[in-house]
Amino acid sequence: MALKPLNPQPVQGGLKAAQRAPKPAPPSPVESAWRPHWLLAAPHRLGFFGGAVMLSASALWWCAVLYAGALGLSIPWVVAPSTAHALLMSLGFMPLFFAGFLFTAGPKWLGMPEVPARSLLPFVLAYLVGWGMCLVGFHLSTLLAGAAMAIVATAWTGLVWKFTRLWRASRADDKVHATVVVFASGFGALAMWAVVVGLLTGQESLIRAATQGALWIFLATVFAAVSHRMIPFFSASALPLLDAWRPMWLLWSMVGVLWFEGAAACLDIWLWPSPGGLRWLQVAVEAPAAGLMLWLAIRWGLVQSLKIRLLAMLHGGFLWLGIALALQALSHTLMALSQDQISLGLAPMHAMTMGYLGATMFAMATRVSSGHSGRPLAADNTAWALYWVLQLAVVLRVISALWPASGPLPLLGAIAVWTLACCGWALRYGSWFGRPRVDGRPG
């Protein structure tokens, strides 16, 4: 199903009247100063700003934790560091970026009126406050962490319910992608509430299983739906030789593989060591899925996209999905042959999270931030440099997992570079969200 470009409506009075219409004046230096009220001018401003705050705070926190450990400094923990890390990096910042994107693009997908950003403010503020308390709770009190996570879960549940009401009220002909997003986001809310139960009852296995389920069935599924809808469309719009090829069977294949990965990851936690049959089943699913995703990256125009930076950023992120699944297949093959004694460690996981999810998030958020701020829809030198800094972080993290004998340097380098990319993006684009559009238009 191809996405049709919008047909411009004729302007009353013809071309000359349109040419005579006054253009919005760009803001003056005084008007363009950063002001909090501009965060309420559009949903993406508020959601992306909250996401940028969480993104940079998460990176700084984990960077401090790793470097403190390398220096021999003792940090108190009441939640296992690896569990806290996985929970924060999966459910910390990405849901806020989702909120910014979905309440900006979602109404257009569904043919519904725009959603005022002010209606999202209570949820975004509660989400940020909850995570701030949760970070303290990880170190001092599981009761505090559980109560804080309940605030986070309540906030996200409210945002999901708000988007679900928009989806239900829509009479659009094509609601497939929005439907996938609604169900995936609903699962994300359930996963957050499961984390609350796990924190309050001390069931670390439940926290880990909920985090893994959320990663594959919530986060990765939303990214897959957006990738399936937007990458072919953006590519065909920018490169006329390409078509917006995106059959529905492809979307369901992607969703099916991701949900299988989520279920298998949860079984790994509850049934360790896993039966050899499960390992070979994982390989049987992951190997062809990896081939399909790598082929799809080429089919959607990976090579052609290299001419356009912003498009190349999006395609580069998607390429990591195929790489991650290939690493998963190889790791599970090694585990099947060695009774779970040999694997690729966390390399496949970080190829998925930092590579596919992280790079795609950077590309999508950069595109939306540029276009909705009145700037050219392109990646300038700063955006391009930040993207490659992020890619370096992914490579270093995967290397550190594949080559544990290399010592702590690749890991410490990876978190330092990741923190640079995250904080750099947050500072650069966070300064845009609190200022008016440079072209003087509303939004």
Task: Provide a quick synopsis of the model.
The protein has 443 residues and is an all-alpha fold. It has helices at 14-20, 43-70, 81-91, 94-110, 121-140, 142-169, 176-201, 204-238, 248-270, 276-299, 302-305, 309-337, 347-371, 381-402, 409-433.
Structure description:
The chain is mostly helical and 443 residues long. The protein has one domain (42-433): Cytochrome c oxidase-like, subunit I domain (Cytochrome C Oxidase, Chain A), CATH 1.20.210.10. The protein has helices at 14-20, 43-70, 81-91, 94-110, 121-140, 142-169, 176-201, 204-238, 248-270, 276-299, 302-305, 309-337, 347-371, 381-402, 409-433. Helix 8 (204-238) crosses helix 13. The protein starts with 13 loop residues before the first helix and ends in a 10-residue tail after the last helix.
SSE order and pairing:
Blueprint (H helix, E strand, L loop, with lengths): L13 H7 L22 H28 L10 H11 L2 H17 L10 H20 L1 H28 L6 H26 L2 H35 L9 H23 L5 H24 L2 H4 L3 H29 L9 H25 L9 H22 L6 H25 L10
Helix pairs in contact: 2-4, 2-5, 2-15, 3-8, 4-6, 5-6, 6-7, 7-8, 8-9, 8-12, 8-13, 9-10, 10-12, 12-13, 13-14, 14-15
CATH topology: Cytochrome C Oxidase, Chain A
Radius of gyration computed on alpha carbons: 22 Å
| Number of DSSP helical runs | 15
Structural class: mainly alpha
Give the distance, in angstroms, between the N- and C-terminal Cα atoms: 30 Å
pLDDT average, as an integer? 91
Shape: globular
Can you summarize the main beta sheet? none
- H/E series, N to C? HHHHHHHHHHHHHHH
Query: How many domains comprise the coordinates?
Result: 1
In the CATH hierarchy, what is the architecture at level 2?
A: Up-down Bundle
Helical proportion? over 70%
